[in-house]
Amino acid sequence: MNLQWLKGLGALGVRLGKMVAVILLIAIFNFMLVRAAPGDPALVMAGQSGATDEAFLQRVRAEYGLDQPMPTQLATYLGKVVRLDLGYSHRQQRTVLSAILERLPATLLLTLSAFAISLVGGVVLGSLAGVRAGKLSDTLISLLALVIYATPVFWLGLMLVLLFSVQLGWLPAFGYQTIGVTMGTWAGVVDKLTHLALPAFTLGMLYLAIYARLMRSSIIEVSHQDYVKTARAKGASDGRILWRHMLRNALLPVVTMAGVQAGTLIGGSVVIETVFAWPGLGRLTYDAVLQRDYQVMLGVFLVLSVLVIFFNWLTDLLYRVIDPRIKAA
Amino acid sequence: MKKREFHKLLLAGGALGLAEFPLGLTQAFAQGTGGVKGGTLNSIIQPEPPILNLAVSQLTPTQTVSGKIFLSLLTYDVNLKPMPSLARSWTISPDGKTYTFNLEPKAKWHDGKPLTSEDVIYTAMEFLPLTHPRAKAIFGRCESITAPDAHTVVFKLKEPFGPFIGAFDISNLPVMPKHIYAGTDVVKNPANLNPIGSGPFKLKEWVRGSHIHLVRNDDYFKPGLPYLDAIIYRVVPDGASRALALENGTVQLTQWTDLELFDAQRLSKKPNLATTTKGYEYFAPIMWLEINNRTAPLNDKRFRKAVMHAIDRTFIKDKILYGFGKVATGPVNSKTKYYEPNVTKYDFSIAKAKALLDEMGLKPDAKGTRVTVRLPVSPYGEMVQRTCEYIRQSLAKVGIAVVLESTDPGSYTQRISNWDYELNLSWLYQFGDPALGVTRNYVSSNIRKILFTNTVGYTNPQVDKLADEAAVAVGDEKRQALYSEMQKIIVDEVPIAWLVEMEFPTIYDKRLQNLVTSAIGIHESFDTVYFKG
Amino acid sequence: MKAVVQSFLRHPSGMLGLVILLAVIVLAVTAPIFFPGDPWDTVAAPFTPPQTDGMLLGSDSLGRDIASGIAHGTRVSLMIGITSTLVALIIGVVVGALSGYVGGRVGEWLMRFTELFQTIPAFMLCILLVAILQPSIRNIVIAIALVSWPQVARLTRGEFLALKEREFVQAARCQGESPLSLIVRYILPNALSPIIVAGSLAIASAILIESALSFMGLGDPNLMSWGFMIGAARTMLRQAWWMSFFPGVAILLTVLAINLVGEGLNDVLNPRISRQ
Predict the structure, then answer these.
(1) What does the alpha-carbon distance between residue A213 and residue A127 come to, in Å, rounded to a whole number?
(2) For burial by CB atoms within 10 Å, which of A43, A252, B438, C115 has the most?
(3) How confident is the model at residue A158 (pLDDT cuts 50, 70, 90)?
(4) pLDDT of B85 higher than 70
(5) First-last CA distance in chain A
(6) What confidence tens digit (pLDDT) does each residue in C200-235 have?
(7) Using one digit for the tens of pLDDT, what is the confidence trace for A41-94?
(8) How far is it, in rounded angstroms, from Cα B506 to Cα B385?
């Protein structure tokens, strides 16, 4: 018993170690990217303000030790990252970290909602299609999934806005909240939800299609397994079979895929936030891109990578919950 | 101010034997009657300013908000005539070298300390030269700036400078509190984020990414003013949302480039909204295409004339600016002083353009291209992008191939400052007088490696001479004559292809009164703005 | 080979995809014929609705022909899609082959390196690269290739790990064939099928990434691409829905077609017993 617990802790330690290593590597990658950019790295790091402000440039050079040998520079940079010093945005007149922390909740809200929608929707539709393989409902669902998978997500967002906001007027087209509605009240919650609806749905649609198709083929594969055939022979109802026997096993590939897709989901939020003016990290990135505020861009990149790693870890846990047979690797 | 009090003041003024009682004083106080106290004005601020001190940052959004918090000695009506602000009266000596301003004795800083001439001198002589691009050029002309008493400031010029009286608005001389800034690093002073000014409104709170909330300054030196309880500037990053906010009444005022121009065109027709393009006369920018005068074949004025003929500027005004503008005729905006309309005309004619290029001996190759030039596209919005695309297409028709290059603010600034371009689309403010905002682009003494100077490298000794003379000439007629001659020469040589005089729509709720009363329009202090009904 | 072609011809969705794809390719090739002139030119009044004044699909804010833009944009999309995929394939196959063939610790570390690239949010990396290196067609291709190669590498490694143990490979090794020859002449040809499928799907994803980049304003400003057209139309959704609608449909159909073809190829080249 004790040994098991220790083993688990050891495994966790190894896992954490891996995660930290990956984050450090990404930080190094950031470091190299800035130096790969054409021109003076000080200008790159000072962003758009650096052009005329010589004093600021000098400060940037001194702070990052740009006149020192590369390894020293790298050490300085990594030291800063470890202390969560992601730099200073001259354009916004505040630290990159504070700008990111301010926007993080909005992105988390959006991506987690989209994740939930895609997973639940994908599993439900995929199961339906898989169980009714070959029938009309299957064909319709599969076709829909195929078309959505080929649709550019920003265009889908615009078309949904056109339909639900401009034409029907059911949902707001842009933004986080209606100006003037106070947060914390019931009206505020409803207002937030109506604003969340289109962006979360648009972002989730693509992955819903992926999970639906995966779930479908997974269900079909599992339905050929012996234990399912046995259950059917024993007279168990379809619903019971689906729920008790098939679902858990069919879910596994989907959960794995969800983990793999975490990176693209978070990347996709950048485009969605731009389309819907959702004030999250993606929107921050877009503004930073327009202003070439490299410090902010790199900071967001690092934070998003950390998020992806976190998501991966979450789906791993989920996987373990679903499949008790898997031991800690 | 009640009528009785007003008459009392007049009598008192007469008794004290004040020789000068400028018309401006009565005007200002007349405006102060009839207003309704109360109400909150909601407007937009786009993009969000980095700081709220316009002495440190001259970005437009900073000016818009800061103009309510800070004041200068004067302001200017829509015809660019001076009106009182912190200075309630002033005199100019007959030789044009001494300017005496009498300050409002009741003016106070938001922290309660009185505003004195010391603050004015500190601002002009110590603060602004550190942070303000034009301060040296203007106040550097002073032999001395002195304070005979706490409420009088005397500016003594080395030689007369006609536009000097036009340099006392908040974008040139925002008066800063000496007791806050003296002895500190003015750029990093925390007061830049929590400003202490002398204006009718003070900062209540600033929630980044959301709004800037200003409230009435109860100690404002003009009794009974301001009328408004508060002004809230909302940060709305998306253009369509801003239009929506105005349309459904969430905000009652938009200005500058808050709205996409086609939205402005549409919303200006709404019955509850009024639109005006007044209030930008002090800025009066002209959108133009800079042509680097240094490299061949751009150094030949026939090439530049061809460029002027090849671009349909009416199309740009109508279809890209949605009618908000006026086709430009030369370097001076028609709203700026000393504008001269009788100059060489350049009509839209592809034939004329081609003829000029043929005359130069620029032969088109097999694909029809005579020469290829680069146009770095400044990353300042859709309108710039569309205009650059249109210019590319227009010039392609006469055989000039234009390659557009995406840039970011940093590299754009670098390239233009270092003259690393052939064409550049830009616009600059004129500040009401050619000596302040126009000649800087055409005199050879201002060929420097920074933005907003004579980056095209145009040199004409005659123009230099005229510019210098006109700056120090005394008397409107004399200055007009000199500037007219200068404009005629410049327009004939076309160092820059002037496209369109830009106009900006200020769209506001019809109930608002006294919104645009001066040449700086919505940058004003808004102390007499109120909601009627 | 003949069997493969014949199987494919009988694959309904694959054939549908192929037909659409061929139409797209034909449009790309014949664009200058059906839509002569420059798609950047103003040819009509701005905001002309579709089917008015000779504008098939309407005009944009500067009076440019949407239909012409779509036709010429086809070349841009296909070119970027194919080029970046080729680069991704080269990198991916080389890394994957090395990792799979050499195996052991080196192979593991190469795989770790590949996984690192997959952890990074791909689109975010593209934005970063294009923004820092400045938007141009060259940098867009590089950015897309850099986020597409890991898939190919993983696949290749898997195939190589399996194939290198096969008898015919072992036999050739015993006969003294050099490692390079083994890889190129024996293993690679047999690993091609899944790589081809992955490549075709990668073209589709490359087109989607490029359109997203152009939409966000990071495209090459001298190229009329579908993403650019949608980006330029974003603020005018109410006024002129056709400006964003038709280019999006173009992307949808092209990507759909490529996906159908790719999946059809997959079905034909890699038949699995448990497939439905």
Answers:
(1) 9
(2) B438
(3) confident
(4) yes
(5) 18
(6) 889 999 999 999 999 888 888 888 899 999 988 887
(7) 666 665 544 344 566 667 767 776 677 777 887 888 888 887 877 777 766 667
(8) 23
What does pTM read for this prediction?
Answer: 0.79
Strands in B230-234's sheet, in edge-to-edge order, are B201-207, B211-216, B230-234, B40-44, B253-254, B506-509, B273-276
**Residue C255: its chain A contacts at CB < 8 A?**
150-152
Looking at residue A177, what is its pLDDT? 67
Mean pLDDT over the full length of chain A: 78
Mean pLDDT of chain B: 86
Cβ distance of C38 and B396 shorter than 8 Å: yes
Q: How far apart are CA B191 and CA B372, in angstroms?
A: 50
Instruction: With beta carbons under 8 A apart, name residues in chain B contacting A93.
Output: 50-51, 193
Task: Give the closest-approach CA distance of C222 to chain B in angstroms.
Answer: 6
Report the C-alpha gap between A35 and A45 in whole angstroms.
10
C4 touches chain A (CB under 8 A): no
Q: For chain C, what is the largest distance between any 2 Cα atoms, rounded to a whole number of angstroms?
A: 74
In this prediction, residue B118 has a pLDDT band, given cuts at 50, 70 and 90, of: very high
* Partners of residue A48 in chain B, C-beta under 8 Å: 408-410, 413
CA gap A65, A59 in Å, rounded: 10
| B208–A43 C-beta distance less than 8 A | no
- Record: contact A151-C132, CB cut-off 8 A: no
Is there a contact between B75 and B282 (Cβ–Cβ < 8 Å)? no
* Secondary structure letter of residue B113 according to DSSP: P
- Cβ atoms of B255 and B42 within 8 Å: the answer is no
Report d(CA B199, CA B218) in Å as an integer: 10
Residue of A nearest to B245 (CA): A179
- Dihedrals φ, ψ of B42, to 5°? -105, 130
Task: Yes or no: say if C232 and C60 are a contact pair by the CB < 8 Å rule.
Answer: yes
Decide: helix, strand or coil at residue A315. helix
Q: Which residues of C touch B385 (CB under 8 A)?
A: 221, 232
Burial (CB count within 10 angstroms: exposed 0-12, middle 13-18, buried 19+), residue C55: buried
Burial class for A300, CB neighbours closer than 10 Å (0-12, 13-18, 19+): buried
- CA end-to-end distance (rounded Å), chain B: 20
Each as own residue / partner, the long-range contacts of residues A306-309 (CB below 8 Å, 24 or more positions apart, any chain) are A306/A23, A307/A111, A307/A262, A307/A266, A308/A262, A308/A263, A308/A266, A308/C119, A308/C120, A308/C121, A309/A19, A309/A22, A309/A23, A309/C119
Chain-centroid distance of CA B290 in Å reads: 20
Instruction: Please give the full DSSP string across A13-27, using - where no structure is assigned.
Output: HHHHHHHHHHHHHHH
Nearest by CB to residue C222, choosing from B319, B320, B403, is: B403
Strands B400-406 and B371-377: parallel
> Does the distance separating the beta carbons of C237 and B406 come in below 8 Å?
no
Distance of CA C260 to the CA centre of its chain: 13
Task: Return the number of other C-beta atoms located less than 10 Å from residue B394's C-beta.
Answer: 23
- The distance of B495 to chain C (nearest Cα, Å) reads 27
